[in-house]
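Hi L.,

As promised, Branched-chain amino acid ABC transporter substrate-binding protein:
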Amino acid sequence: MRSKSTAVLSSLLAIGAAMATSACGGGKTEVAGGTGGCDTSKGTLVIGVIAPMSGKLSAIGLGIRNSVQLAVDQANTTCAVKGYQLKMDAQDDEANPDKGAAAAQRFADDANVVGIVGSYNSGVARAIQPKIASTKLVQISPGNTDPALTRGAEYATAPKRQYDNYFRVVGTDDLQGPFNARYLVGGEGMRRIAIVTDGKAVAENMATEFAKEAEKLGATIVGREKVNENDSDFSSVLTKIKSLRPDAIFTGTDYSIGGPLAKQAKDLGLNVPMSGNDGLFDAQFIALGGRDGDIAASVGAPIDKLSTGAAFVEAYKKRNFAEGYGGFGAFAYDAANVLVFSIGEVTANGAWTGAPEQRTALVKEVQAYSTDQGANGVVGFDEYGDSKNKLFTVYKVTNGDWKDVESGQFEAK
């Protein structure tokens, strides 16, 4: 297995923490604080980004975009891909599968594009995967959590890899949902739980996995309701749930629905905690109505508490991006660095042409990538393309802000 050396990555992170900007000119990318430059005579290679950079989920998408830009700038500063300058091309999918698929097809048709960081939404990934499968263009998602994307519909009983060019750097719903349930039932003592989803496949799957574990632990699912992602008035559903006298509400949705849902629940006198998945874990959930006591389980460990994440956080802040890195920026940064290292290995054996055999070679390099020094610690992939990093964290809204309360790996019992 090819491993990115700790020394190389540590050097990259250290330089990244020290740099505030990258200066480019004269066909070379200048090394910040130095007198030399990088040979970019072989041209420019592109890392594509597909994420929701406008609309309800823009806070997540913009953090993804900025984090990839940071990784690209650092790679250019350290001459990571010999002979080439790297460029980011970010496309806004608006969380729309058709727009995401169209962007992916454009990237696949461009020989200079070496890979895609994206998408965030699992529904968008479902549309992208078949579009680019035959081209072998690498796709590494910083946010997809639907286990079916890698292991198929029968992922629990008969897992089968779906696309060998698809990877992700986050844990999946069949682990995240149960991790949430163990905390809510075991840690918070909730026994009567209502479920509200937005009807999307990933939300339904997360809720199902949550419910199975919650019931195994002795909780009762008192009701399961759906809202529409375009709804703004949830009073009928919440009134029905209130009559069921739940101890908590689990919601399989993102912050754009979860926040208003929490606010309207409180307005109806339904003063129970709302718990959800990584889609809730954003400051926007609180801004839109999330309350003290509300809970979210999310992928990874708190980035600012990881020794390997400190350099990313420092470098990101020094860049003064208009937007924060959000819950998935560090994962996008790691995904971009996988591509940077892997394309460096492929081009060391010959100039990049974008030929099918080179893209296939790049897929193999990504599959073999392994480090414990990513921003999120472990970065690597199993035989299905799933992340080897199985860490999850439960966060609770405390004094108007998210506070981490428990981190660990979900182990089936």
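The longest strand covers residues 43-51.

Thanks again for sending the construct details.

K.
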